[in-house]
Amino acid sequence: MKSPSWKAIVATTAVAGLGVLAVATAPTQAAASAPERHHAHAALSTAQLAKLPLTDRDLTKKEIANLAVVLDAYHVAEGDSLDPGGFIDDFTEDGVFTDEVAGQTYRGQALGDTLTRMASIFPDVHRDLKSITVNGDVVSVELAIQGTFEGPLPTPAGTLEPTGAKIDVPTADFWYTKGGKIKKFDCYVGYTAMYSQMGVDLDWAGAVDKG
C-alpha cells in the first residue's frame, strides 16, 4: 500500500493528526516535554478500510477502533507529521514500546524521544504498511521503514556522518491494545539490512581475527 492512500486515511481518523521508531542507541533521559493532549480516534469507514492492506476485512467495531489508534501511532511517527506528544498519548499510562532486536524498552516521555531521535537521523522517515492483521486487541503489521540518511548517527565507535543513502528496511510490528489505547508495542527491525543500506559493513573479518 503506497503512502498517499494510507496517509490520507490516518489523517482523517486522527483528530490531532506506527517497527522502527527508534534506532539501537541508548534512550535519552528526557526531551522537551510536549503539551499534554488527549485525542479520540474517529471510526474508520468501510471505504477507508477498503484502502488498507488488511488480511481480513470482517472486523468488529472494537477491532476497527483498535486499528484506528495504531494507524494514528504510525501517522504521528511520520517525518512530515511528527508529533511525539501524540504518540505518547496513544499509549496507556503504563504502556511500553520494546525494540526487540535492540533489546531496549521505552516508557513515558522516552516513547516520544524515540520518534525525535529517529527523525533526527531520517527526517523523511516513512512506514510503508504492507499487510495488517487485526485479531481482537492485537494488531500485527508487516511493513518497511523508509527514509533518507540525512542526520548524524552516534555509535560506540564514534559518529557516523550522513551520506544521503536511502533505506527500505523490513520490519514487523505487534501492537497490543487495551481500552482504546496501546498497552504494549513490540517491534522487530531488520537492522542488518538498514545498516548495510546506510553504508555500514559488518566487520566479519575483524570478528574472526579476534577469535
From TrEMBL:
<feature type="signal peptide">
    <location>
        <begin position="1"/>
        <end position="30"/>
    </location>
</feature>
<dbReference type="InterPro" id="IPR037401">
    <property type="entry name" value="SnoaL-like"/>
</dbReference>
<feature type="domain" description="SnoaL-like">
    <location>
        <begin position="83"/>
        <end position="183"/>
    </location>
</feature>
<keyword id="KW-0732">Signal</keyword>
<protein>
    <submittedName>
        <fullName>Nuclear transport factor 2 family protein</fullName>
    </submittedName>
</protein>
<dbReference type="InterPro" id="IPR032710">
    <property type="entry name" value="NTF2-like_dom_sf"/>
</dbReference>
<dbReference type="Pfam" id="PF12680">
    <property type="entry name" value="SnoaL_2"/>
</dbReference>
